[in-house]
Specification:
Peroxisomal Thiolase, Chain A, domain 1, alpha/beta, 5 strands
Length: about 140
């Protein structure tokens, strides 16, 4: 029986940025970058070890980190689809270490724009994870 394609793929760190209804002075990019830097610090990886950035706004975060050459995920997906896309890229050998990012600012800030049946409006987020090819001992 062949091994699962994700056998050597692992999430090695995650980070949540500060969250609030309003984060003055922040943009989706600044929130995603803050989370990316937190995840990188948590994992102990060097920024130049990252060769893939997935999620939204992945390309902006990659450039802000100073990555010269990196694979960028398709269509700016986020959440589980971005994690799966990163895992697929690692399993296929396209990247060795992927950063999965997401950040959003300014969504549903006015009470009048709140969707019925939903919780309070939010203006900040979120989360970032580093995934990496894993060699078991």
């Amino acid at each position: 029986m062949s091994a699962h394609p994700y056998q050597n793929v692992a999430i090695v760190g995650a980070f949540n940025s500060r969250q609030a209804r309003v984060l003055e002075g922040h943009t989706s990019q600044s929130i995603a970058l803050e989370a990316a830097l937190g995840a990188i610090k948590e994992t102990g990886l060097a920024v130049d070890e990252i060769d893939g950035v997935f999620g939204r706004p992945g390309d902006e975060v990659g450039y802000a980190l100073g990555l010269n050459m990196f694979t960028n995920g398709s269509a700016g997906g986020f959440g589980i689809p971005a994690v799966i896309e990163a895992a697929n890229a690692i399993a296929a050998g396209a990247v060795e270490t992927a950063l999965v990012v997401f950040g959003s600012a300014g969504l549903y800030t006015a009470e009048s724009r709140r969707r019925p049946g939903r919780g309070p409006a939010t203006n900040g987020s979120r989360h970032t994870a580093c995934t990496r090819r894993w060699s078991s001992p």
